[in-house]
Design a protein that fits this description.
Layout: E1 9-13, E2 18-21, E3 35-39, E4 44-45, E5 49-52, E6 60-69, E7 75-86, E8 95-101, H1 109-119, E9 134-137, E10 140-144, E11 147-153, E12 174-177, E13 191-194, E14 197-204, E15 208-213, E16 227-232, E17 240-241, E18 244-247, E19 254-255, E20 260-261, H2 263-269, E21 277-281, H3 296-312, E22 317-321, H4 331-336, H5 345-363, E23 372-375, E24 389-393, E25 401-405, H6 413-435
Parallel strand pairs: 1-7, 8-9, 8-11, 8-21, 21-22, 22-23
Antiparallel strand pairs: 2-5, 3-6, 4-5, 6-7, 10-11, 12-15, 12-18, 13-14, 13-16, 14-15, 16-17, 19-20, 24-25
Helix pairs in contact: 1-6
């Protein structure tokens, strides 16, 4: 049985603290059931994670080896990877960076954070201060110190969504505008009703909320009532007063004149100069089957998207960011209950591990290995502490509190920033390679 899931390598940056969390590399519901032994020339192993802050004299490659032992001193499994320490350098020319994703990207936090650490002089963590070295392109925008950070991030989208133009159909989501609401990250995937139709809360902004279709909702352009009422899930249940609504916009890469995705047209109509570096974080959507090891419904469309980018911009380097592991502390139960998609916590965890491996294997195929690579997010993400949670009584007859997860797959703000750290380390490595 395979338990250890390490990528070929991890990117590290001089002066930046790298943390490798065992939850993200050991596919066990309780990874601490075995003794975890780490063997590496650098760094420090703790009970939950390994950490290493490289100095300039540490530039190079180091073997990281992990071994699982049972209580009888028997070796259960051994695996290894390379820790590659990079000395950051500014790009020789200004590079255009495109970030693509789903609900993990729609708020723009991880693209913005990686960009901030690469280009700004902030004192928070390591920031490189390479001003005017990158342009973050995209039709979605977030502001950073007077600059607009672009990206393409849409809740509930998959690889297929970015390869087709069928979202204005029975699958279209709806954005509703509101004057105010009390919803937060603990309410994602809660179920609401408009008229007799069910809607599932997907994305939350200050004045806008995005809902995807519920189980009985298949009308191409359903009527949206003036009020959404709570049905199930979440912690904030007040009615939502609808000010206005619009259905999900179409694929930003779609060219209707040729009825296909077209990245040259995308940059042209949006006045973007080019595409040099691409980062894709997809997809928790569609991992419905527990313990699954067949992801062709994703990888078939992933290949289409990669080919189209490469055809339009042959020099562009494409990095696939793996998905993080889901909540291990009740968030799956809070969102999905005890039946149906995602309700099997360890089955969902296992599918996520297998999906990440499928992504890495895709980038190693002969057709793609020269211009794509895989970066492992799950090992660099603390799924035990960087997922949304609340404190509540351990039972109805006790005042003692325990921490319980409230969201299955969407991080808290610290988790989004941690994905931004993964993006930052990938940027450093990709810029070094692009300079060659």
């Amino acid at each position: 049985m395979k338990y250890l899931y390490l990528p070929k390598k991890y990117d590290l940056v001089v002066g930046d603290t790298f943390e490798l969390f065992y939850r993200g590399i050991i596919c066990l519901f309780n990874p601490y059931k075995y003794y975890i032994h780490i063997d590496c020339p650098k760094g420090t192993p703790y009970n939950r994670y390994f950490t290493f802050t490289p100095k300039i004299t540490d530039v190079g490659e180091y073997e990281f080896k992990i071994t699982l032992f049972d209580d009888d001193h028997n070796i259960i499994e051994t695996a290894s990877t390379l820790l590659v320490v990079n000395l950051p350098k500014a790009p020789h020319q200004k590079l255009n960076v495109l970030c693509i994703g789903d609900s993990l990207t729609f708020n723009g936090v991880w693209p913005k954070e990686g960009y901030r650490r690469f280009t700004q002089n902030d004192n928070d963590l390591l920031c490189l201060g390479y001003h005017d070295s990158l342009q973050m392109i995209g039709t979605c925008k977030q502001e950073l110190n007077g600059e607009m950070v672009g990206y393409e991030g849409y809740g509930s989208w998959t690889w297929k969504s970015f390869c087709t133009n069928d979202l204005v159909s029975t699958n279209s989501s709806v954005w509703i505008e509101v004057d105010h609401h009390h919803l937060d990250e603990n309410d994602q995937h809660s179920i609401w009703q408009s008229g007799n139709l069910l809607w599932v809360l997907e994305s939350i902004e200050e004045k806008r909320l995005k809902f995807k279709r519920g189980s009985n909702n298949f009308t191409p352009t359903p009527k949206i009532e003036t009020k959404f009422t709570h049905v199930d899930g979440g912690i904030n249940h007040d009615d939502i007063e609808v000010k206005a609504y619009t259905f999900e916009k179409t694929n930003p890469f779609w060219n209707s004149s040729i009825n296909d995705i077209d990245f040259k047209n995308y940059t042209s109509v949006n006045h973007f100069p080019s595409i040099d570096l691409v980062y894709i974080l997809l997809t928790w959507n569609g991992l419905y089957k527990p313990y699954n090891n067949d992801f062709t419904h994703h990888t078939d469309y992933a290949k289409i998207l990669l080919r189209k980018i490469h055809e339009a911009y042959p020099k562009a380097k494409i990095t696939l960011l793996g998905i993080q592991i889901c909540s291990v502390n009740g968030g799956i139960a809070a969102n999905y209950g005890a039946s149906g998609p995602y309700s099997d916590t360890f089955g969902t965890i296992t599918s996520a591990f297998n999906y990440n491996k499928a992504l890495e294997n895709l980038t190693l195929e002969d057709e793609f290995k020269t211009y794509t690579r895989y970066v492992d997010t799950k090992g660099q993400f603390d799924s035990e502490y960087n997922m949304p949670s609340i404190e509540r009584a351990v039972n109805l007859r006790s005042n003692i509190k325990e921490v319980v997860g409230t969201n299955g797959v969407h991080p808290n703000m610290n988790g989004y920033l941690q994905i931004g750290d993964v993006f930052f380390r990938a940027l450093v490595k990709d810029v070094i390679d692009y300079n060659k």
